[in-house]
Write a structure and sequence with these properties.
The chain is an alpha+beta fold. Helix content is about 65%, strand content about 5%. The strands form 2 sheets. Strands 2-3-1-6-7 form a 5-stranded mixed sheet, with helices on both faces. The two termini are about 45 Å apart.
């Protein structure tokens, strides 16, 4: 089963930590001369210095006087807050790139900034100002961005299922992926060496039971996420009630104070978006949102029965469209990663998975083997019985291969009458055992169609990372391919592995 840890352990174009962010973190690790080291790094980027001072002077911090230097800002808001402001700008700038498909990067950062502002204001209201709340709130949904950047088909499948089922996003993620976006975000930030006080509340803010050490911070992130939903969600009134319930249960905050807090989040978020050079157009004060909602309701001069009837029809239509969209995306996913004839994984999926498995094997010093399989005299089958029987043979061989290998092995149609199998955590000896099982199993396979009985054999070539210089995809596939042709040359219906690796270099030269 894939976990959030194994997800970030695979390359898959995961974003690298911004270099300047790493330098900022390194500069403030030691207490001695921390400010001087931080200032030296920040001043190398005049634009970053200007942005930091603008945020320090913004209404979010409400300083009694304007500051015009980093040293002044540090003395008034603290070194940790200054560091986190710098990190926020650097990380947003590095990840603010368009993503193919339906993902709206602009809306993502608008909501993220709103969540960060909400977290900071809630912390202030609860007298719990840690210096980390803004950046934790800003990055609490970064896992969603990572999923859409690296696994767009799976991320879209999650969204489709959410629309159809009505379940919370994180719950659908756990059902389909085995983990949620909060866990992915926390794993990535930990990989980047971001402080625990930032990523641990992110990891736990969706949980029913929070980590005791960061319980209050996790709860603040949970509430800030709901406040952002007031501005970007569709159920405004219900979400406001939910925010009231959470804040009342947490600190007995009066209703009027909560309403003012929600409105402040909107106003200060628009200010922060401008500082991050993100268009705040379309974000209105909550009072305007509620008023518009009420005005629309007043315009509906319909009977109660008509409203219920129309709502029911609209709901049915929306559910039908959502299901059709889900089915269409599932079909696209099938076309992208599965072979239409055999139902096995296709060449593209095999190549991508082999990259991941080689990376994992090298990182954890595990073995990995690859098997290439070719049906013997397949052209003769097509010429004798026709392509209908040929297709039937391919389907049956594919089905039998899945039965003959382990659940952890990956079986794919490599092309034509050729198949490929990835054998994780398997060395030369294990690969030979599985290879012989495959060869004998196909040899015993009987394929029947009406009055026609077809028996076939296969030739098998295997390679392993235990072989010389076979720690990369090109070499592994080259060894397997040469071993397969060696099996063909030696009479077919046999398994081969190159015993003398140097023969490849000799033949190529």
């Amino acid at each position: 089963m894939v976990t959030s840890q194994s997800f970030v352990d695979t390359p898959d174009s995961l974003p690298s930590p911004p270099i300047i962010a790493m330098r900022i973190l390194e500069a403030v690790k030691d207490d001695s001369n921390s400010f001087e080291d931080l200032a030296k790094i920040v001043k190398t980027d005049p634009a970053l210095t200007t942005k930091i001072l603008k945020i320090a002077n913004s209404s979010l911090y409400g300083l009694p006087k304007n500051v015009d230097s980093l040293s002044q800002a540090t003395s008034l808001i603290g070194l940790k807050a200054l560091k986190n402001i710098a990190l926020s700008f650097v990380i947003v700038n590095s990840l603010d790139k368009e993503i193919e498909g339906a993902f709206d990067i602009s809306d993502f950062w608008k909501r993220s900034i709103t969540t960060g502002v909400a977290a900071e204001l809630i912390g202030s209201q609860l007298n719990h100002q840690t210096g980390d709340l803004f950046v934790s709130g800003l990055l609490q949904n970064i896992g969603v961005l990572i999923l859409f950047s690296t696994r767009p088909l799976e991320a879209q499948r999650v969204l489709d299922e959410k629309r159809v089922s009505g379940k919370p996003l994180y719950q659908v993620e756990e059902e389909i992926l085995g983990f949620n976006h909060a866990e992915i975000g926390a794993e990535l930030l930990e990989l980047w060496n971001i402080p625990q006080s930032i990523y641990q509340p992110i990891r736990h803010h969706l949980s029913e039971s929070f980590d005791e050490k960061y319980k209050k911070e996790s709860l603040i992130l949970k509430i800030s996420n709901r406040i952002a939903a007031v501005y970007y969600g569709s159920r405004v009134s219900e979400t406001i009630k939910e925010v009231h319930k959470l804040l009342t249960a947490t600190a007995q905050i009066p209703k009027q104070t909560i309403d003012e807090l929600i409105d402040q989040v909107g106003a200060k978020s628009r200010e922060m978006m401008n500082l991050f050079l993100i268009d705040s157009k379309g974000m209105q004060p909550i009072s305007v949102i509620i008023q518009r909602s009420n005005d629309e309701l007043k315009k509906l001069n319909l009977s109660y029965e008509q409203v219920v009837y129309d709502l029911k029809k609209s709901t049915q239509k929306a559910e039908k469209l959502a299901k059709e969209l889900k089915q269409a995306n599932e079909k696209l996913s099938q076309l992208a990663y599965f072979d239409e004839l055999t139902g096995l994984y296709n060449f593209r999926y095999f190549q991508e998975t082999l990259d991941d498995e080689i990376y994992r094997a090298n990182r954890y010093q595990q073995t990995l083997s690859v098997m290439l399989i070719d049906i013997d005299f397949f052209k003769k089958v097509n010429d004798t019985y026709g392509h209908l029987i040929g297709d039937l043979v391919l389907k049956n061989v594919g089905k039998e291969l899945v039965q003959l290998v382990r659940q952890s092995d990956v079986v794919a149609r490599y092309g034509g009458e050729e198949f490929a199998i990835i054998l994780p955590s398997t060395g030369i000896t294990g690969a030979k055992v599985i290879g012989q099982r495959v060869r004998r199993g196909i040899e015993r396979l009987e394929i029947k169609h009406e009055q026609i009985n077809v028996s076939i054999t296969v030739s098998v070539g295997i390679s392993s990372t235990e072989m010389e210089n076979a720690d990369n995809k090109k070499t592994l596939l080259s060894y397997s391919d040469e071993a397969l042709y060696q099996a063909k040359r030696n009479g077919r219906n046999r398994l081969e592995m190159l015993e003398n690796i140097s023969m490849l270099k000799t033949e190529e030269s």
